[in-house]
Amino acid sequence: MDRKPIMAANWKMHFVTSEAESFVKDFLAGLDGQEALDIVIAPPYTLLPSLGSLLADTPVDLAAQNLHWETHGAYTGEVSAGMLKDMGCKYVIVGHSERRQYFGENNQNVNRKIQAALSEGLLPILCVGEVLDERKNERTLAVVQKQVKEALQGVDKEGAEKLVIAYEPVWAIGTGETATPEQAQEVHLAIRNILSEIYDEPLAAATRIQYGGSVKPANVCALMGQPDIDGALVGGASLKADSFTRLVKFEK
Ligand code: PGA
Fold first, then answer.
1. What is the distance of C-alpha 103 from the center of its chain?
2. Which of 130, 143, 153, 238 is exposed most, by the fewest CB atoms within 10 A?
């Protein structure tokens, strides 16, 4: 099954306009236009308007890091799928472990967010992953499959076809510790199996599953060498143009 790789930069809460502009200038200059993959940048909300114009007509797509599930209303501090669409976003990250850990997100509100994103035509990047204790107790596959199942409750096949999944073991995020390619592959395959159970085998085989958690140029090739790893969601190593350029070129 030919799945187009997808490399995404998750900038988290980093960068003001001048920093983002200089990143984009350097990053675009380093691309040769031959990259046979999808490239995505997810800046903080404040940078969506400027990045929306800087990235228009480039091979780089814009993503948001979060959204609210309602379309509008009295939800101070929140941003809807329609507003993200209005900024030129193509993707939106949903259920990142930092949102689950610090902002009370659970599989139920992740599910509502997925539905809201899909109803506006945004492509969700659904993040799942186990914490260290769950891995130690050999509950990784069960936890991750449950996260996928509950996040996709009531999502029809047409919606699920739009989905990207990011497997991000929580113990590997920002820690410098990466899952081994084999550990990641085992979970990616389990995710594909649950998709096949919920939908069907062709959908499971077509869905792109990224790995995330301390991905850097030094380890990207080994991870991408696994049959079920289709790209990466990158935090720390996406904050330097040079390093993200090497990542999208799969260069050490
Ligand atoms: P990291 O973050 O690459 O800094 O580990 C990944 C993520 O949180 O998406």
1. 18
2. 153
> How confident is residue 64, by pLDDT bands cut at 50, 70 and 90?
very high
| 33 C-beta neighbours (distance < 10 Å), count | 7
Quick: pLDDT tens for 17-54: 999 999 999 999 999 887 799 999 999 999 999 999 99
Candidates 181, 128, 184, 117; CA nearest to 151 is 128
From the number of C-beta atoms within 10 Å of its C-beta (0-12, 13-18, 19+), residue 73 rates as: exposed
Residue type for 165, please?
I
Catalytic (active-site) positions: 96, 168
Q: What is the reported pLDDT for 35?
A: 77
Q: How far is ligand 1, taken at its centre, from the CA of residue 177, in Å?
A: 11
The two three-digit tokens of residue 157, written as one number = 């096949």
Query: CB neighbours (10 Å) of residue 61?
Result: 18
* Report field, pTM of the whole predicted structure over 0.85: yes
Q: Do residues 157 and 202 make contact, with C-beta atoms less than 8 angstroms apart?
A: no
Cα–ligand 1 centroid distance for 234 (angstroms):
5
Can you state the angle between helices 181-198 and 140-151, rounded to 10 degrees?
40
Question: Ligand 1, atom 2: nearest CA belongs to which residue?
Answer: 235
